[in-house]
Design goal:
Elements: H1 6-9, H2 22-31, H3 44-49, H4 51-68, E1 78-84, E2 97-102, H5 105-123, H6 141-157, H7 180-190, E3 193-197, E4 206-210
Antiparallel strand pairs: 1-2, 1-4, 3-4
Helix pairs in contact: 2-4
């Protein structure tokens, strides 16, 4: 019998987004890097200098976004820089480049706010897979490789044959399962992205324009 929809079988559901506080926003601003996107009207260092003054207004904007399931359209625009996937690839072939988007500063902050709430939801009832290394504290590709290496050594000591299947890490995809109420906000954040060359700047840059 085919499995039922995730929404029908889920034992843990996010009932509502936790309210964003001015202190939380101020801490996020303080810990952020001094990187500025060409789409930002103000330099990042200036926002950090005036964070105590600006954080209440940014907090109001973020709470409104989460409450209305609306991700601001301007936050979906990004300047994309093409970087070679590895140094030994042919730079004349576009397929050998990885698109690296540079999003507006407030867009990055809002994404961090949502990420923190999703992580808290997954951590509290221990919903994260025990062997997952991505998107969790104190875990990385290094810890994943160490775990795999240890398993191979243990199997070898036990005179067992090991089979290893590796995925192409040059293309990565992320899946998340959430309730419909919050799925609306997440879909609103990433839906319908298109790209075009930005003729007003570096010819090697691409501007991504997202629309709902």
């Amino acid at each position: 019998m085919p499995p039922k929809d995730g929404a029908d079988t889920a034992s843990h559901v996010i009932n509502g987004w936790k309210t964003v506080t001015a202190l939380e926003v101020e801490k996020l601003i303080s810990s952020s890097l001094n990187k500025t996107c060409q789409l930002d009207p103000v330099l990042t260092w200036l926002i950090k200098e005036l964070r105590s003054l600006l954080s209440p207004f940014i907090t109001l904007l973020f709470n409104k976004s989460l409450a209305t399931d609306c991700f601001p359209k301007k936050y979906k625009h990004a300047i994309v820089f093409p970087l070679l996937k590895t140094d030994n690839l042919d730079a004349s072939q576009p397929i050998n480049f990885r698109p690296v988007p540079n999003l507006p500063y407030l867009s990055k902050l809002l994404e961090k706010v949502a990420k923190t709430r999703l992580q808290e939801f997954l951590y509290e009832p221990d919903l994260m897979p025990s062997h997952q290394s991505a998107y969790r504290k104190f875990h990385s590709i290094e810890t994943a490789l160490l775990h795999l290496y240890n398993d191979l050594l243990v199997a070898s000591d036990q005179r067992k044959v090991s089979g290893l299947c590796l995925l192409d890490s040059l293309c990565s995809f992320t899946d998340v399962c959430v309730a419909q109420r919050h799925l609306t906000w997440l879909m609103n954040c990433v839906v319908c992205q298109t790209c075009q060359h930005d003729s007003d700047s570096d010819p090697h840059q691409i501007r991504i324009n997202s629309s709902t």
